[in-house]
Q: What sequence folds into this?
Protein backbone atom coordinates (compact mmCIF):
# COMPACT_ATOMS: atom_id res chain seq x y z
CA UNK A 1 0.00 0.00 0.00
CA UNK A 2 1.27 3.47 -0.89
CA UNK A 3 0.00 6.74 0.49
CA UNK A 4 0.70 10.15 -1.02
CA UNK A 5 0.90 12.81 1.67
CA UNK A 6 1.13 16.55 1.23
CA UNK A 7 4.33 17.76 2.87
CA UNK A 8 6.25 21.00 3.13
CA UNK A 9 10.05 21.26 2.96
CA UNK A 10 11.86 24.55 3.17
CA UNK A 11 15.44 25.64 2.76
CA UNK A 12 18.14 24.86 0.23
CA UNK A 13 21.28 22.78 0.26
CA UNK A 14 23.99 24.15 2.58
CA UNK A 15 21.47 26.41 4.30
CA UNK A 16 21.96 24.93 7.78
CA UNK A 17 19.20 23.60 10.01
CA UNK A 18 15.84 24.31 8.41
CA UNK A 19 12.24 23.87 9.36
CA UNK A 20 11.02 20.32 8.90
CA UNK A 21 8.48 19.37 6.29
CA UNK A 22 5.06 18.56 7.63
CA UNK A 23 3.95 14.95 7.42
CA UNK A 24 3.72 13.65 10.97
CA UNK A 25 1.28 10.93 9.92
CA UNK A 26 4.10 9.20 8.01
CA UNK A 27 6.41 9.05 11.05
CA UNK A 28 6.58 5.97 13.23
CA UNK A 29 8.88 5.39 16.20
CA UNK A 30 9.72 2.26 18.16
CA UNK A 31 11.94 1.57 21.18
CA UNK A 32 15.09 -0.38 20.37
CA UNK A 33 15.56 -1.34 24.04
CA UNK A 34 12.97 -1.71 26.78
CA UNK A 35 14.98 0.14 29.45
CA UNK A 36 18.35 1.71 30.19
CA UNK A 37 19.27 -1.38 32.21
CA UNK A 38 18.71 -3.51 29.13
CA UNK A 39 20.76 -1.06 27.08
CA UNK A 40 23.74 -1.63 29.37
CA UNK A 41 23.30 -5.38 28.89
CA UNK A 42 23.29 -4.85 25.12
CA UNK A 43 26.60 -2.98 25.31
CA UNK A 44 28.09 -5.77 27.41
CA UNK A 45 26.85 -8.35 24.89
CA UNK A 46 28.85 -6.75 22.10
CA UNK A 47 31.93 -5.62 24.04
CA UNK A 48 32.28 -8.64 26.33
CA UNK A 49 34.84 -11.37 25.73
CA UNK A 50 37.07 -9.01 23.82
CA UNK A 51 34.30 -8.04 21.41
CA UNK A 52 33.75 -11.63 20.29
CA UNK A 53 30.20 -11.01 19.07
CA UNK A 54 31.35 -8.04 16.99
CA UNK A 55 34.10 -10.12 15.40
CA UNK A 56 31.83 -13.11 14.79
CA UNK A 57 28.96 -11.12 13.28
CA UNK A 58 28.23 -11.76 9.60
CA UNK A 59 26.91 -9.35 6.97
CA UNK A 60 23.12 -9.19 6.86
CA UNK A 61 21.86 -11.05 3.78
CA UNK A 62 18.17 -10.04 3.77
CA UNK A 63 17.07 -8.34 0.53
CA UNK A 64 20.61 -7.72 -0.67
CA UNK A 65 20.08 -8.02 -4.44
CA UNK A 66 17.32 -7.71 -7.06
CA UNK A 67 17.05 -9.29 -10.49
CA UNK A 68 15.56 -6.47 -12.53
CA UNK A 69 15.94 -2.69 -12.55
CA UNK A 70 13.90 -0.57 -14.96
CA UNK A 71 15.11 2.91 -15.85
CA UNK A 72 12.77 5.77 -15.06
CA UNK A 73 9.92 5.83 -12.60
CA UNK A 74 7.77 8.14 -10.52
CA UNK A 75 10.57 10.02 -8.78
CA UNK A 76 10.15 13.77 -8.51
CA UNK A 77 10.57 16.36 -5.74
CA UNK A 78 7.29 16.72 -3.84
CA UNK A 79 8.07 20.22 -2.55
CA UNK A 80 11.02 22.61 -2.31
CA UNK A 81 14.52 21.27 -1.59
CA UNK A 82 15.54 21.09 2.06
CA UNK A 83 18.74 20.35 3.91
CA UNK A 84 20.62 20.30 7.21
CA UNK A 85 24.33 21.09 7.17
CA UNK A 86 27.01 18.58 8.25
CA UNK A 87 29.18 19.24 11.31
CA UNK A 88 32.71 18.41 12.37
CA UNK A 89 33.51 16.55 15.61
CA UNK A 90 34.01 18.73 18.66
CA UNK A 91 36.51 16.30 20.15
CA UNK A 92 39.67 15.11 18.44
CA UNK A 93 39.11 13.44 15.12
CA UNK A 94 39.44 14.19 11.43
CA UNK A 95 38.92 12.68 8.01
CA UNK A 96 41.76 10.67 6.49
CA UNK A 97 41.17 12.09 3.02
CA UNK A 98 39.41 8.98 1.74
CA UNK A 99 36.58 7.97 4.06
CA UNK A 100 34.33 9.85 6.50
CA UNK A 101 34.75 9.32 10.23
CA UNK A 102 30.94 9.39 10.56
CA UNK A 103 30.57 6.04 8.77
CA UNK A 104 30.52 2.73 10.62
CA UNK A 105 28.73 -0.55 11.14
CA UNK A 106 25.30 -1.17 12.60
CA UNK A 107 25.27 -4.45 14.57
CA UNK A 108 22.20 -6.40 15.68
CA UNK A 109 20.82 -9.89 16.26
CA UNK A 110 18.54 -11.08 13.46
CA UNK A 111 15.47 -13.28 13.40
CA UNK A 112 17.82 -16.27 13.17
CA UNK A 113 19.26 -15.42 16.61
CA UNK A 114 22.70 -14.70 15.15
CA UNK A 115 24.75 -11.46 15.17
CA UNK A 116 24.81 -9.53 11.89
CA UNK A 117 25.77 -6.11 10.58
CA UNK A 118 24.87 -3.46 8.03
CA UNK A 119 26.43 -0.08 7.27
CA UNK A 120 25.31 3.12 9.02
CA UNK A 121 26.31 6.76 9.31
CA UNK A 122 26.18 9.42 12.01
CA UNK A 123 24.15 12.47 10.97
CA UNK A 124 23.73 15.89 12.51
CA UNK A 125 20.87 16.34 15.00
CA UNK A 126 19.84 18.52 17.90
CA UNK A 127 21.26 16.14 20.49
CA UNK A 128 24.15 14.86 18.33
CA UNK A 129 22.95 11.29 18.72
CA UNK A 130 21.53 10.13 15.38
CA UNK A 131 22.38 7.26 13.01
CA UNK A 132 20.97 6.64 9.52
CA UNK A 133 20.70 3.24 7.84
CA UNK A 134 18.40 1.18 5.63
CA UNK A 135 14.93 0.56 7.04
CA UNK A 136 15.35 -3.20 6.93
CA UNK A 137 18.57 -2.85 8.93
CA UNK A 138 16.43 -1.61 11.82
CA UNK A 139 12.98 -3.15 11.28
CA UNK A 140 12.95 -6.95 11.14
CA UNK A 141 11.16 -7.78 7.90
CA UNK A 142 11.14 -11.47 8.83
CA UNK A 143 8.92 -10.87 11.86
CA UNK A 144 5.75 -8.84 12.28
CA UNK A 145 5.97 -5.49 14.10
CA UNK A 146 9.50 -6.06 15.36
CA UNK A 147 12.78 -4.19 15.39
CA UNK A 148 16.08 -6.02 15.17
CA UNK A 149 17.49 -7.00 18.57
CA UNK A 150 20.55 -5.62 20.39
CA UNK A 151 20.96 -2.76 17.90
CA UNK A 152 24.19 -0.74 18.18
CA UNK A 153 26.39 1.50 16.04
CA UNK A 154 30.21 1.37 15.86
CA UNK A 155 31.67 4.32 13.90
CA UNK A 156 34.99 3.73 12.18
CA UNK A 157 34.76 -0.02 12.73
CA UNK A 158 37.87 -1.76 11.39
CA UNK A 159 39.19 -5.26 11.98
CA UNK A 160 37.21 -5.93 15.15
CA UNK A 161 37.94 -2.62 16.88
CA UNK A 162 35.70 0.15 18.27
CA UNK A 163 38.02 3.15 17.84
CA UNK A 164 35.33 5.75 18.59
CA UNK A 165 33.18 3.79 21.01
CA UNK A 166 29.99 1.75 20.80
CA UNK A 167 26.54 3.39 20.82
CA UNK A 168 23.40 1.49 21.85
CA UNK A 169 20.23 2.31 19.95
CA UNK A 170 17.42 3.82 22.05
CA UNK A 171 14.58 4.81 19.69
CA UNK A 172 14.10 4.01 16.01
CA UNK A 173 12.26 6.24 13.53
CA UNK A 174 10.94 5.14 10.15
CA UNK A 175 8.13 5.55 7.68
CA UNK A 176 4.74 4.13 8.58
CA UNK A 177 4.39 2.55 5.14
CA UNK A 178 7.62 0.61 5.47
CA UNK A 179 7.00 -0.53 9.03
CA UNK A 180 3.41 -1.57 8.30
CA UNK A 181 3.28 -2.50 4.62
CA UNK A 182 6.95 -3.11 3.70
CA UNK A 183 6.84 -0.32 1.13
CA UNK A 184 10.43 -0.35 -0.10
CA UNK A 185 10.09 3.15 -1.51
CA UNK A 186 10.33 4.10 2.19
CA UNK A 187 13.15 1.72 3.18
CA UNK A 188 15.10 4.16 5.37
CA UNK A 189 15.50 4.62 9.11
CA UNK A 190 17.06 6.81 11.77
CA UNK A 191 17.97 5.70 15.28
CA UNK A 192 18.80 7.76 18.34
CA UNK A 193 21.65 6.29 20.35
CA UNK A 194 22.82 6.64 23.92
CA UNK A 195 26.19 8.28 24.45
CA UNK A 196 29.05 5.95 23.64
CA UNK A 197 30.83 3.45 25.84
CA UNK A 198 34.14 1.62 25.70
CA UNK A 199 35.34 -1.45 27.55
CA UNK A 200 38.51 -1.74 29.63
CA UNK A 201 40.78 -4.78 29.62
CA UNK A 202 38.89 -6.01 32.68
CA UNK A 203 35.55 -5.66 30.89
CA UNK A 204 34.33 -2.59 32.76
CA UNK A 205 32.29 -0.14 30.70
CA UNK A 206 32.95 3.60 30.79
CA UNK A 207 31.35 6.62 29.11
CA UNK A 208 32.81 7.90 25.85
CA UNK A 209 30.68 10.95 25.00
CA UNK A 210 28.09 11.81 22.38
CA UNK A 211 28.30 10.28 18.93
CA UNK A 212 28.47 13.41 16.78
CA UNK A 213 30.81 15.13 19.25
CA UNK A 214 33.21 12.25 18.67
CA UNK A 215 32.96 11.63 14.92
CA UNK A 216 31.01 14.52 13.44
CA UNK A 217 27.78 14.14 11.53
CA UNK A 218 26.77 14.19 7.88
CA UNK A 219 24.16 16.65 6.70
CA UNK A 220 20.85 15.48 5.28
CA UNK A 221 19.26 16.67 2.03
CA UNK A 222 15.90 15.91 0.43
CA UNK A 223 14.07 16.85 -2.77
CA UNK A 224 17.40 17.35 -4.53
CA UNK A 225 17.83 17.31 -8.33
CA UNK A 226 18.31 14.00 -10.07
CA UNK A 227 21.49 13.16 -12.00
CA UNK A 228 23.52 14.45 -9.05
CA UNK A 229 26.95 13.02 -8.26
CA UNK A 230 27.14 11.13 -4.98
CA UNK A 231 29.95 9.37 -3.15
CA UNK A 232 28.90 6.04 -1.64
CA UNK A 233 30.54 4.71 1.55
CA UNK A 234 29.93 1.28 3.02
CA UNK A 235 31.27 -2.11 4.09
CA UNK A 236 30.52 -4.48 1.19
CA UNK A 237 31.45 -8.07 1.94
CA UNK A 238 29.40 -10.59 -0.04
CA UNK A 239 30.22 -12.21 -3.37
CA UNK A 240 29.31 -11.12 -6.87
CA UNK A 241 27.06 -13.56 -8.79
CA UNK A 242 30.21 -15.04 -10.37
CA UNK A 243 31.53 -15.93 -6.90
CA UNK A 244 34.29 -13.33 -6.79
CA UNK A 245 34.78 -11.55 -3.45
CA UNK A 246 36.61 -8.26 -4.01
CA UNK A 247 35.68 -6.89 -0.56
CA UNK A 248 36.31 -8.18 2.95
CA UNK A 249 33.79 -6.08 4.90
CA UNK A 250 36.50 -5.23 7.43
CA UNK A 251 37.22 -1.70 6.21
CA UNK A 252 35.07 0.98 4.64
CA UNK A 253 35.04 1.24 0.85
CA UNK A 254 33.91 4.01 -1.49
CA UNK A 255 32.54 4.50 -4.99
CA UNK A 256 31.01 7.42 -6.85
CA UNK A 257 28.54 8.03 -9.65
CA UNK A 258 25.51 10.02 -10.78
CA UNK A 259 21.99 9.25 -9.61
CA UNK A 260 19.17 8.22 -11.94
CA UNK A 261 15.56 7.19 -11.47
CA UNK A 262 14.68 3.51 -11.29
CA UNK A 263 11.87 1.04 -10.65
CA UNK A 264 12.32 -2.42 -9.10
CA UNK A 265 9.35 -4.72 -9.84
CA UNK A 266 10.32 -7.42 -7.33
CA UNK A 267 10.11 -4.87 -4.51
CA UNK A 268 7.13 -3.01 -6.00
CA UNK A 269 9.37 0.03 -5.80
CA UNK A 270 8.45 2.89 -8.11
CA UNK A 271 10.45 5.76 -6.56
CA UNK A 272 14.01 4.49 -6.37
CA UNK A 273 17.25 6.12 -7.39
CA UNK A 274 20.19 4.18 -8.79
CA UNK A 275 23.93 4.86 -8.95
CA UNK A 276 26.77 3.02 -10.67
CA UNK A 277 28.64 1.10 -7.97
CA UNK A 278 30.55 -2.18 -7.82
CA UNK A 279 29.54 -2.81 -4.20
CA UNK A 280 28.19 -6.26 -3.43
CA UNK A 281 24.97 -6.33 -1.40
CA UNK A 282 25.88 -8.15 1.80
CA UNK A 283 27.38 -5.66 4.21
CA UNK A 284 26.66 -2.66 1.97
CA UNK A 285 23.03 -2.32 3.06
CA UNK A 286 22.69 1.12 4.67
CA UNK A 287 25.68 2.61 2.83
CA UNK A 288 25.53 6.41 2.77
CA UNK A 289 25.13 8.35 -0.49
CA UNK A 290 26.72 11.76 0.08
CA UNK A 291 26.14 14.84 -2.05
CA UNK A 292 28.95 17.40 -2.23
CA UNK A 293 31.35 15.19 -0.31
CA UNK A 294 34.48 17.05 0.78
CA UNK A 295 37.47 14.77 1.30
CA UNK A 296 39.26 17.31 3.43
CA UNK A 297 36.56 17.40 6.09
CA UNK A 298 34.98 13.99 5.44
CA UNK A 299 31.58 15.69 5.26
CA UNK A 300 28.68 15.78 2.82
CA UNK A 301 24.90 15.60 2.65
CA UNK A 302 23.17 12.25 3.07
CA UNK A 303 20.90 11.87 0.03
CA UNK A 304 20.49 8.11 -0.24
CA UNK A 305 20.96 4.81 1.59
CA UNK A 306 21.72 1.54 -0.18
CA UNK A 307 18.86 -0.93 0.25
CA UNK A 308 19.84 -3.40 -2.48
CA UNK A 309 22.17 -3.91 -5.45
CA UNK A 310 21.78 -5.27 -8.98
CA UNK A 311 23.67 -6.70 -11.95
CA UNK A 312 22.04 -4.71 -14.75
CA UNK A 313 24.16 -5.86 -17.69
CA UNK A 314 24.08 -9.60 -16.94
CA UNK A 315 27.84 -10.09 -16.64
CA UNK A 316 27.52 -11.67 -13.17
CA UNK A 317 29.04 -8.63 -11.46
CA UNK A 318 26.98 -6.17 -9.43
CA UNK A 319 27.17 -2.73 -10.98
CA UNK A 320 24.32 -0.71 -9.44
CA UNK A 321 23.30 0.33 -5.92
CA UNK A 322 19.70 1.32 -5.17
CA UNK A 323 18.10 3.72 -2.70
CA UNK A 324 14.66 5.20 -2.06
CA UNK A 325 14.41 8.78 -3.30
CA UNK A 326 14.78 11.25 -0.42
CA UNK A 327 11.68 13.46 -0.64
CA UNK A 328 9.84 15.62 1.89
CA UNK A 329 8.52 12.60 3.80
CA UNK A 330 12.11 11.54 4.47
CA UNK A 331 12.72 15.07 5.70
CA UNK A 332 9.78 14.83 8.12
CA UNK A 333 11.03 11.56 9.57
CA UNK A 334 14.57 12.89 9.90
CA UNK A 335 13.35 15.99 11.73
CA UNK A 336 11.28 13.95 14.19
CA UNK A 337 14.28 11.76 14.96
CA UNK A 338 16.66 14.73 15.15
CA UNK A 339 14.64 16.29 17.97
CA UNK A 340 14.67 13.15 20.16
CA UNK A 341 16.95 13.08 23.21
CA UNK A 342 18.67 9.91 24.39
CA UNK A 343 21.23 10.78 27.12
CA UNK A 344 24.08 8.79 28.65
CA UNK A 345 24.12 5.03 28.97
CA UNK A 346 26.00 5.04 32.28
CA UNK A 347 25.81 7.35 35.31
CA UNK A 348 28.33 10.13 35.62
A:
Amino acid sequence: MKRILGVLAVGVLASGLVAAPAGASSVTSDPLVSSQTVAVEVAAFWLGNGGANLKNATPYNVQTAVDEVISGGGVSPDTKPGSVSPVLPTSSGSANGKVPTASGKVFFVGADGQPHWCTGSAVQSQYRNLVATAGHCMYDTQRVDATLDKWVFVPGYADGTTPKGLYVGKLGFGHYDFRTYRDYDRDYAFATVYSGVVSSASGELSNFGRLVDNVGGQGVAWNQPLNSQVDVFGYPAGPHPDGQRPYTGETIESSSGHTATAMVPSLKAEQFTAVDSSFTGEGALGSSWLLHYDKGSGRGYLNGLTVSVADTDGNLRYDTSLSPYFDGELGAIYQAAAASWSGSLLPG
Q: What stands out?
A: The chain has one domain: 24-338. Residues 1-23 have pLDDT under 50 and may be disordered. The first strand starts at residue 27 and ends at 31.
